[in-house]
Amino acid sequence: MNKILIDLQHITKSFDGQMVLDDLNLYIRENEFLTLLGPSGCGKTTTLRILGGFETPDKGCVIFDGQDITKMPPNKRQLNTVFQKYALFSHMSIAENIAFGLKIKNKSKSYINDKIKYALKLVNLEGYENRTPDSLSGGQQQRIAIARAIVNEPKVLLLDEPLGALDLKLRQDMQYELIRLKNELGITFIYVTHDQEEALTMSDTIVVMNQGYIQQIGSPERIYNEPENAFVADFIGDSNIISATMIEDKLVEILGVRFPCVDTGFGTNKPVDVVIRPEDVVLSSVGNGKIKGTVTHLIFKGVHYEMEVTANGYEWLVHSTGMFPVGTEVGIDVDPYNIQIMNKPASEDEEAAKIDE
User: For 312, phi and psi rounded to 5 degrees?
Assistant: First the structure.
């Protein structure tokens, strides 16, 4: 396991009396690609700005490589930030933009020239030294912003929704570029986004946030397949989230029908929520499934059909490569391993509150 590089301890931050972060604790390992994921206003950008030194927490401290840097100014920290707005200097050439931070550090001309060439090669823009930012596409400008951050040899690169302004194809290309850069450079990436697909594609670790609290920390696979609460299940991909009753270990009643499952430890006859992903709902001819339903909507999505099936008073969302026309009666079944059981929150406040890690 790589060593812990950053440790955020008991971070609390308010703006105008509005709590944005509430006793946040988070550590980040060396060479990790960690993504802060959540809706607008969840506290992810504030967390990044506190890391970068652009905000100071009301309480708590930021430990970087064993040193308390909570009050250290941004230019003294061993990290660089790439923002959604690239903030390139339009009156400077690409080379001058990349060299800006190195000139402030009084590096030699030959050192700076070597670094410019190295950075441009790394972001696949060799030969662009003398171009101006306004002659570049959005994707190219983004690469220059990353090159400018890389030449300073930060231990950590902070990225605040850096692909938000790009179109879908460019965004996907840049996702692969960022993964490649992270692997080549061996530095820690901390990435902020509200885009679930982006987080799932690039991250080693995802931190799901809501209302200033961490909801779940885990690998993309774990976050997707084993959400710890309804917010995470609903925010990461599509889900069927259904109120149910845990009859006993490995047996749950969903919409009046008993299904075998693999979860234990939830008690006997306890109300729970179940999460079933649309791709895990198995449709068959009537009589073969545990529940009978009727297809009410059908959309072709390219790799699969998306259907809504009304069954036992619930609208099931189903993704399937098999097509069942609207009006068809079908049977519904779910493999025991694909039924995820979650405790019901006792209140709305508890729903937002921090989970135990």
Answer: 50, 40
